[in-house]
Design a protein that fits this description.
Helix content is about 65%, strand content about 5%. The strands form 3 sheets. Strands 4-8-6-9 form a 4-stranded mixed sheet, sandwiched between helices. The N terminus is likely disordered.
């Protein structure tokens, strides 16, 4: 801590080892002088490196505050230390890893069981393979044993730069491997570990891991490791570290893009050329998240099968199915995908401070909305809307055979925070959630969240001008897409006009609007053009003029589409077959127009000339969207809570002591569910004609 000198201008810093003085106070055992404040980056790794000089002996064990030791395990420390001298690996052993016992798994909540199982098979099955035969196990955190002398002469046990070293532990592994050290894994010793138990903290934990993994890809340590490792070891490293997140990004992004593609093809009348609805190739892509969630549970099932036998494994499988574990795994996969992709493209990795709440506590809806709106709820709303567009204007009535997995994935994004939230289907709790959300929006909480969400974007190492250009280009592209959809809906609804113009390509208003959007993109491109044979960036005045021109052209194109919708819309909607379809078409058109207008407001709010006018309108539009989204979520929840029976079933499902060692309550529950499934199957197979 800081220590005042002779005057105010003098300040000395020192790291001090303190202990109890036996009378309720503390006394200083020893101190090490420091040149200044040691906390320059992340606090946790800085504290570890500052504490390293006070560790006695040649070895040091890294133990977290949420870990515990066992007396019988302490007896094994002597042979564990001997592993530093007796390894058969080529280089000196500098890190020894061993498993953890996740004691929070028995807390009685299903998400605690899910995260406990994930951590258990990662700490045993996965790391066993990473050690032998892949030889790519690194330091993944505590409670590993480290060679103190090796790391003290190489910069400490952690790297602590902000953002780029968010996952501070793994850099010890990079450091020792590049220096010729070896990492081994032994399973005869373990320590206790407490993991987060509710969904909010679990997703925050995975967000921190995925952001830290993405940030580590830009470090010199990874570049040097990749350049020096042989090909087989490089592939093994990719499998064990990066691929765990990259595959989630690919799968979830492909799944989310499918509705946009289907809606566009259906609106222009070309969906039958890309999908014959027999082989259903698009459904294979949409099934990837479901398969991924099942594959995530396979290692845990194999672990129970090997350790407890087939009967316990069957019980475990039934428990995972009844508690809707695929919903949890798909939701977590989207969390990792969102934060990994955002960190790669824009940077901004940050540490998540866990509150260690008990899993039996209810999380208010406004906290769920603030955490998951940007990464899950907005995405699910877009997927629902574009799937509806595809179904309304598809030439086939068998489209659901292709899109049902995408409907399921989007439903997982919405249902997981509600399904794994205690007391969510209690009527009194739903009323409290509604009052809490309204108070959060009107009391200033929403404004703070909005300002944080729409604050200055992270640049991810890019220059400010390049980051601004990327942001504006994305906004113009989104505005063009939504406007195009908003234009096609009334045009497709007005069948006579659509046939008279021989298709959407020949429609003059569309050609004019497309040319205007193209001109706005050209204006944006001109903002970044450098002078011939010069590396000098364009002047700020030129960039500002190009941005204003792009915003003006984008707004003009959107107004053209709005005018076209007003002309074409009513006549076509009047001839639509049913009231339900007329309402659906009107709602879809309003959603697309709102998306286009919102994108234009985003573009204008980032321009100095129009920010004062556009920013309040944009804030109002976002607030209206959040109100509509909260109503769409809470109204069905309130209807279910009024029935009371869903609340009883919900409590029975999410509070489980174990999937393996069933008590009488678990046996009755599983037997009832199996009997209900068998009865439903028997009734569906009867010939009611």
């Amino acid at each position: 801590g800081g220590e005042g000198g002779g005057g105010e201008e003098e300040e000395a810093w020192a790291a001090m080892l303190v202990c109890s003085d036996g009378e309720g106070g503390v006394r200083c055992e020893s101190r090490v002088g420091l040149p200044g404040n040691p906390i320059l980056g992340e606090g946790k790794p800085e504290n570890q490196n500052v504490a390293l000089p006070f560790c006695h002996g040649e070895r040091v064990q890294m133990v977290d505050m949420n870990q515990e030791g066992y007396w019988e395990e302490a007896l094994k420390m002597r042979p564990l230390l001997q592993e530093f001298e007796s390894s058969a690996k080529a280089g000196p052993v500098t890190v020894i890893g061993f498993p953890e016992h996740i004691f929070t798994q028995s807390s009685g909540f299903v998400t605690a069981i899910f995260i406990g199982l994930q951590e258990r098979y990662f700490g045993s099955f996965v790391q066993r393979v990473l050690d032998e035969p892949l030889d790519v196990r690194l330091h993944y955190g505590h409670p590993d044993l480290l060679d103190k002398l090796h790391f003290a002469t190489r910069g400490g046990v952690s790297k602590a730069s902000k953002e780029i070293n968010l996952s501070e532990d793994i850099f010890s592994g990079y450091k020792t491997v590049l220096a010729g050290g070896c990492v081994v894994f032994r399973e005869y010793h373990l320590v206790g570990k407490g993991r987060p138990t509710n969904l909010m903290e679990i997703t925050g934990f995975f967000a921190k891991l995925s952001s830290g993994s993405a940030a580590s890809l830009t470090t010199r340590d990874v570049a040097r490791f990749a350049a020096s490792a042989p090909l087989v070891k490089l592939f093994s490293y990719y499998y064990s570290a990066i691929a765990f997140y990259v595959h989630d990004v690919i799968v979830m992004h492909v799944t989310v893009l499918i509705p946009y593609l289907l809606a566009m093809l259906a609106l222009v009348g070309l969906d039958h050329r890309f999908n014959n609805y027999e082989a259903q190739p698009l459904s294979l892509f949409a099934l990837l998240p479901l398969l991924l969630s099942l594959m995530t549970a396979v290692p845990a099932l194999c672990m129970v099968l090997v350790e407890r036998g087939p009967r316990r494994a069957l019980s475990f499988l039934l428990g995972m199915a009844i508690t809707a574990s695929p919903v949890y795994f798909i939701f977590v996969a989207q969390t990792k995908s969102f934060h990994f992709a955002r960190t790669v493209t824009a940077g901004g990795a940050s540490y998540f401070a866990a509150r260690r709440n008990a899993s039996v506590l209810h999380t208010p809806y406004h906290e769920l909305h603030a955490r998951f709106a940007h990464s899950h709820l907005y995405v699910a709303a877009d997927v629902y809307v574009f799937l509806c567009m595809a179904h309304v204007w598809s030439v086939s009535d068998r489209l659901f055979l292709t899109t049902w997995p995408t409907w399921a994935v989007a439903s997982c994004f919405v249902l997981a925070p509600l399904l794994y939230n205690p007391q969510q289907l209690e009527a009194w709790q739903v009323k409290a959630d509604v009052r809490g959300f309204c108070g959060w929006v009107t009391g200033g909480g929403w404004e703070e969240w909005y300002a944080r969400l729409h604050g200055p974007p992270a640049r991810g190492g890019m220059a400010a001008e390049d980051a601004a250009w990327n942001e504006q280009f994305g906004r113009v592209s989104v505005a063009a897409f939504y406007s195009f959809i908003a234009y096609l809906i009334p045009l497709q609804t007005n069948v006579d006009n659509f046939a008279a113009t021989r298709g959407w390509v020949c429609e003059p208003r569309l050609v004019c609007t497309g040319a205007t959007y193209l001109a706005s993109l050209v204006a944006l491109a001109a903002a970044d053009l450098r002078p011939h044979r010069s590396a000098r960036a364009p002047s700020s005045r030129r960039r500002r003029a190009c941005y204003v021109a792009a915003a003006t052209l984008c707004a003009a194109a959107t107004l053209q589409l709005a005018a076209a919708c007003a002309v074409l819309g009513p006549a076509g909607l009047a001839r639509t077959a049913s009231l339900r379809k007329r309402l659906c078409v009107a709602a879809l058109c309003v959603y697309a127009c709102a998306g286009a207008v919102g994108s234009v407001l985003e573009l204008a709010a980032n321009m100095r000339a129009t920010a004062d006018v556009a920013a309040p309108l944009l804030r109002l539009a976002h607030k209206a969207r959040d109100y509509a989204l909260a109503a769409a979520v809470l109204l069905p929840v309130g209807a279910l809570a009024a029935l009371r029976l869903p609340g009883v079933v919900h409590r029975a499902l999410i509070f489980q002591r174990s999937f393996v060692d069933l008590d009488m309550h678990g046996l009755i529950l599983y037997s009832s569910v199996l009997a209900a499934v068998a009865l439903a199957y028997a009734l569906s197979s009867l010939d009611w004609g």
